[in-house]
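U., I forgot to send this yesterday:
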Amino acid sequence: MIRQRMRIRFGKQDDLRWIGHRDLLRVLERLLRRARLKLSMTEGFHPKPRLSFPLALAVGISADEEVMELELAEAMEPDQLLAVLNEHTVPGLTFHSVEKAVIGEKKAQVESVVFEIPVPVADQPRVRAAIADFLAAESHLVEREKRAEPVDIRRDVMRLELGDEGLEMQLRTARDASVRPREVLAVLGLAELEHDGYLLRRSTVNLTNEKVTP
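Result:
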């Protein structure tokens, strides 16, 4: 039996940023049915396509890049699968690339992600000072609901820059990492940016030891 694992990068934007991860799975499952692809399915009474995501995205955040892995039960070239997915997609969902994942390797794991958001010019001097203070600190503790101990988010902020295009943050996402982009915004005094109409988006997903076949 043929089992071919594909690593797919796609964008989720516009109104689709308001749906949760489970709803996104339903959208993708319907898309795959429309495309009439031969899929590798899970076992049991209610088989599902073997579809996995290394990192879910919070509701309300736009994504230039998300990653998923899909197992096919037929031989197909990456460019062929990419064309089929985009032919049957829905508004707000765009497929950018497809690669054959190495057979036998672990599923994709995310090492870090990059988020971006515009910052009003009037706020930029204050934000630059807040960035300098945050990066100079050895730790920064934040409180979370339903958690007894505060969380140190400083160690997982790999990069924090304010440029002409706005704020850019690279956050570590290893298993023991826990920083959230909206926590960083709050630390910088930018918690209300999204409420004011500025779009937070995930622009890049960096995978750990990424290996694909030619």
